[in-house]
């Protein structure tokens, strides 16, 4: 099997934003011999730093392990990064012959190994796996967590792979994809400074996934980033971050989260 130069087109079929990392079509440890499986990883990268701060490591490698380390990167916002078309060092030693470096593709999703997964990132993860299954004629059962095919690895943390594969199988079969964004848009209220409800947590998670939460925002919060993400209060600090997001999106920076702000937050 040659270098898999169709991977960018496969990624675009998900409907997610796609970045082709310069040089990806000829990047790899030689061509990819075959594709018998897909291995899902988390990067164990920094807790902050925007959408995909681990790109350089996945592309170029780290001490003791040369890059590329995976064909795909997956940002916190669901943005897909196409990094390599050839073989990558993403799983060795493998307990499954169908999920070794020479027989499988890797997806490195940005996560420090403990932080909550943004819903839009999980949705993109499933869609990308489904499109890879379609492209290479794989059943959803061939999509594995790194921890399922390498006894020394824990990733991707906290994802129930039975549910994950069921969602991938439904997508491959042509069942309707997740419609949570459209449904939630019908119900979400206007959020104002001082409000205290669970919809505020959604705002926090979306802002973080889009790279609009600097470390200073949660440096003094109990339990750090996790504590900040799980707070249900629309405090002054959150309002300022919302205003910054609104300015970046070219909408009125009034600090209120209504339909015009919810839409870009959720990427409807």
Topology of this structure?
Layout: H1 7-12, E1 18-20, E2 37-42, H2 55-60, E3 61-62, E4 65-66, E5 72-74, E6 80-82, E7 104-109, H3 119-136, E8 143-145, H4 146-149, H5 161-172, H6 180-187, H7 198-209, H8 224-230, H9 236-249, H10 259-266
Parallel strand pairs: 1-6, 2-7, 2-8, 5-7
Antiparallel strand pairs: 3-4, 5-6
Helix pairs in contact: 3-5
Q: Can you describe this structure?
A:
- The protein has 268 residues and is an alpha/beta fold.
- It folds into two domains: 166 residues, Lysozyme-like; 87 residues, Muramoyl-pentapeptide Carboxypeptidase, domain 1 (Orthogonal Bundle), CATH 1.10.101.
- Helices cover 35% and strands 10% of the residues.
- The chain has ten helices and eight strands.
- It has a six-stranded mixed sheet. The chain has a two-stranded antiparallel ribbon with strand order 3-4.
- Helix 3 packs across helix 5.
- The mean pLDDT is 92.
Keywords for this structure?
six-stranded mixed sheet; Lysozyme-like; elongated; 8 strands; Muramoyl-pentapeptide Carboxypeptidase, domain 1; 2 domains; 268 residues
Oligomer: single chain
Total number of distinct structural domains: 2
CATH topology of the largest domain: Lysozyme-like
**Low-pLDDT segments:** none
Estimated structural class:
alpha/beta
Please report the first level of CATH classification, the CATH class of the largest domain. Alpha Beta
What's the architecture of the largest domain, going by CATH?
3-Layer(aba) Sandwich
Largest sheet entry: 6 strands, mixed
Helix proportion of residues, in percent? 25-40%
Reading the helices and strands in chain order gives: HEEHEEEEEHEHHHHHHH
